[in-house]
Specification:
The chain has no helices and 11 strands. With 117 residues, the chain is mainly β. A hairpin with a 4-residue loop joins β7 and β8 (75-80).
């Protein structure tokens, strides 16, 4: 059973930066994708950024964020800059075995990010 564990959330002020981490318990298959999502109270979950494990192909919903990975540590990072109060949400990482699939087999428990004005 693959497990994803997020960390790095916290309370920051508007304009600050924060770096989230997502550790994958088992090395993802080359065909995998690991993506970040977020969900604010009362809102639907939304895609933030994603990457394919076997290629330097990334996808962003917001240019203030950067996604990267460390293959040796099985870890995916989300660097968030110039944070705004509207970025406040629980951030989740998710893994799908095939990058072209719509379905994610594994989700982390989430890490809270709160941005004060």
């Amino acid at each position: 059973q693959v497990q994803l564990v997020e960390s790095g959330g916290g309370l920051v002020q508007a304009g600050d930066s924060l770096k989230l981490s997502c550790v994958v318990s088992e090395g993802p298959a080359a065909t995998s994708a690991v993506d970040w999502f977020r969900q604010a109270p009362g809102k639907e979950r939304e895609f933030v950024a994603g990457l394919r494990w076997d290629a330097d192909i990334v996808n962003y919903a917001d240019g203030r964020f950067t996604i990267s990975k460390d293959n040796m540590k099985n870890t995916v990072y989300l660097q968030m800059n110039s944070l705004k109060p509207e970025d406040t949400a629980v951030y989740y990482c998710a893994l799908k075995t095939f990058w072209f699939s719509r379905d994610y087999e594994y989700w982390g428990q989430g890490t809270q990010v709160t941005v004060s004005s």
